[in-house]
Amino acid sequence: KRTLSSLLLAAIATVSCGGGSTARPDLPGSVSPGWNLTSLDKMPGPPADWPDEGSPTCWSATYSGPGSAQIWVCGYESAASALNAEQSMRAFPQTVKFQEGKRLVVVQWKDARRTDLEALVRTIQKRVRE
To answer: What is the pTM of this model?
Structure first.
């Protein structure tokens, strides 16, 4: 009975903290210089042109401001799976990808200056670290 209570408390703490790789990412509502989060939606899976690596839980965010940015945050079962997916993914124009623990993040932008985009990517990278 004591073990069950401990397990339940641990599960509640994990869910309430939202720290899991499959939990809704804690993305900021705004990032200087003028980026604003306009949507954050859970997706049925990764985009179709992504490598078939595991069964990640994916979220899609859209930012507007000094350009536009589409961000995918996908949580994998392990850091190795996220790394394999990142390394298997082909390169796309105006796209940056990075892995943070069990999460793979892909940022695709349009009409954004490099300095504005760097501020957004740095902030996102800090927020998705586990």
So the answer is: 0.81
